[in-house]
Amino acid sequence: METQWITEFPHTNMDRRPRKRPRLTWDVPPPSLKAYPGLYCRQEVGHGPVLDDIYSSLYFKGVARNVSPPRRPDDKDGHYVFAIGDNLTSRYRIHSKMGEGTFGQVLECWDQEKREMVAIKIVRSMQKYREAAMIEIDVLQQLARHDPGGTRCVQIRNWFDYRNHICIVFEKLGPSLYDFLRKNSYQSFPIDLVRDLGRQMLECVAFMHELRLIHTDLKPENVLLVSPDYVKVPEYKYSSRTAREGSYFKKLPRSSAIKLIDFGSTTYEHQDHSYVVSTRHYRAPEVILGLGWSYPCDMWSVGCILVELCSGEALFQTHENLEHLAMMERVLGPLPQHMLIRAEYVQVSISKKKYTSQEK
């Protein structure tokens, strides 16, 4: 079988007598294309893109139910290659692509058993990403045990191994805070809304820290609104950008409820904390200075996110360590002397003496 299901409660007293396996709908071949004359006129049906199009079209016509999709090799980076309408096992049917990252892809799928839309994270088939996915599953299951209501972090529904890809099934949420800002022409959120979002983020982070977990990758992309619904309100403070685009209204979330996602980089308190973590714009100074990090690195990231929600722009827009530290000093004043004394410049390519000098 191409699918390895993970069962938490194995049957210990199974009837092991040999018997003929019943024919499952998963094994049923696709319906004959002769029933659809003219669907693919002047096209030769075979393996490749044309066959993929046929599967997609049959899906949209409601014909292909539990047909196993054709085997396709992964792309050069180990990403799973799919077509809209494909099945991920007999239970999940691919509806659309929601996003892509270093880890793999996130697909919107229809859960035919629960009759609901879900988000499935398909991890790249490389071993290091498979191992990271198993760690993430462990963290997600721990979070779910301590938060049965699922009010703080995204809820894991299921997971399975499909064609050498770890697939993690999540509840489907709304857009990320970054996507909402981007689609709203990067217009800032009202301060009352930012205050509410900030309170929820701090509660989520406190919940993780109580479990001795450090997220290490908090950013607007990893904070999702629970609902995609929004309202339009008049925008009275026009910026040059909004005026140029003719945006005289701004969108606001109908509900401010949020949840954290992406626990692939989450670490426990007792693990090694010497390597570089966090996305650049939300990286704490102790991480850049190579001092090691702990719970405060999450708090620094939350502060950067709140400023971005208030202004519509990232606070530290840089891709270089020295410039990043200089921008921090411009906003917050000189770095504490005790940090500079202990600093071992792992990423900064200058000496401590040159950095602390008064030369401009």
TrEMBL record:
Residues 92-360 form the Protein kinase domain. The keyword Nucleotide-binding applies. This is Protein kinase domain-containing protein. GO terms for biological process: regulation of RNA splicing. It comes from the Eukaryota. The keyword ATP-binding applies. GO terms for molecular function: ATP binding; protein serine/threonine kinase activity. It holds the Pfam family Pkinase. It comes from Amborella trichopoda. InterPro entries: CLK_kinases, Kinase-like_dom_sf, Prot_kinase_dom, Ser/Thr_kinase_AS. One of its GO terms (cellular component) is nucleus. PANTHER family: SERINE/THREONINE-PROTEIN KINASE DOA-RELATED, SERINE_THREONINE-PROTEIN KINASE AFC1.
